[in-house]
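job 3f2a | input accepted
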Amino acid sequence: MAFSRAFLPSLYSIVFIVGLIGNGLVVCVLVKYHKGFNMSDLCLFNLAISDLLFLISLPFWAHYAAITKWTFGIFMCHAVTALYMLGFYGSIFFMILMTVDRYTVIVHCYTSMLSKHRSVRASIALALFVWALSLGASLPTIIFSQVKNESDEWKCRVEYPQGTAWDSFTYIELNILGLIIPLSVMVFCYSRIIPILMTMKSQKKHKAVRLMLVLVTVFFLFWTPYNIVIFLKFLHHLGYMSTCQWHQDLSMAMQWVETIAFSHCCLNPIIYAFVGQKFRNLFLKILKEWFPLCFGHCIIINNDFRIISKVRI
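job 3f2a | predicted structure (313 res):
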């Protein structure tokens, strides 16, 4: 409790500000320079939207952690939970889509799912389908979130009907959809992609796949601890490790791993800037347009992105 009130509000606020600026910039770059949109860009755009949805929920969780009671009512409890879950599943499903698309293009030499020959409507339909899957996976948690009065304090939490299997179903769903399936798909796809790339001379393809590989690796590094604690909570729910000490330890562990997982929202834009050559160019281009006094006299040398600043006297 002391940890929640002392540190979580500040940490959530920092993640919110940094993530909002970074992901907002990614969305602006992709919208402004969408003429060369490909499947990877479509997925990166929706990944940024997923992170933004997730980030919008953080100020509410920060306030909740600071005063330890929910003051926003039942509707906002449902809405904030929906933002949280949609951001979580949206990130996972669009990473899977991005990985499968690269796998089909590189390993089987098929045309990308979103190519010049495919219509804009088809790409929008595909994105909407993935969002529909994300909503479907999120629905149980959204529906059963409610505000309850506990010790004269209102709490926003998920409460499943007694005597049903919804509790167990949600734990299993989080582990299967949040870790097992995406990890299996990505390990399989990249284990086939990497050997083929090693024999290719196209640096452009190498850099594109390297960006996706870094995104996937960072995602799992930050979300796997969360999924492990979810699995331990599931065992606790089944009656294993059912002591009070285990309950307290799992509650504390959940606060730590949630904090680690939440901070992932700020990292994708940083990865784009340092790993993605295309994004680095576009970031600098849009910053030059928005802030000409700061960035208007920067020179990019030989695509090496070493910046020499010329100061006006």
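job 3f2a | The chain has a mean pLDDT of 81.
job 3f2a | closed
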